[in-house]
Amino acid sequence: MEKAVKRWTASKKMGIVLRILRGESLEDLSREIGVSASQIEEWHRTAIGSIESSLKSRPEDPLYAELDLAKRRIGDLSMENELLRERSRPPPICFYISSLIS
Hints:
Radius of gyration: 32 Å
Distance between the termini: 93 Å
Strand content: under 5%
Number of helices: 5
Largest sheet: none
Structural class: mainly alpha
Oligomer: single chain
Helix content: over 70%
Order of helices and strands: HHHHH
């Protein structure tokens, strides 16, 4: 006889993880809901990892966007400046000699 696979929604998994975080026994919870302890631990690790990464992210402050735009503009202007310097340099002396020979 095949065992029916039950799919868990994200909100139900979150509820189970919250119960673990509140201090409920992993073994008791595993028996109650019929899911292996290792599966519950995996949900717990995933939830903690997501919480950690969301806390590390930079807030969406308009000043950061403006700063990034200013940095890109400075880079563009620097590159343009370098190109103009290259164009304004006189050609090397060998250019003049080759034009006299031809």
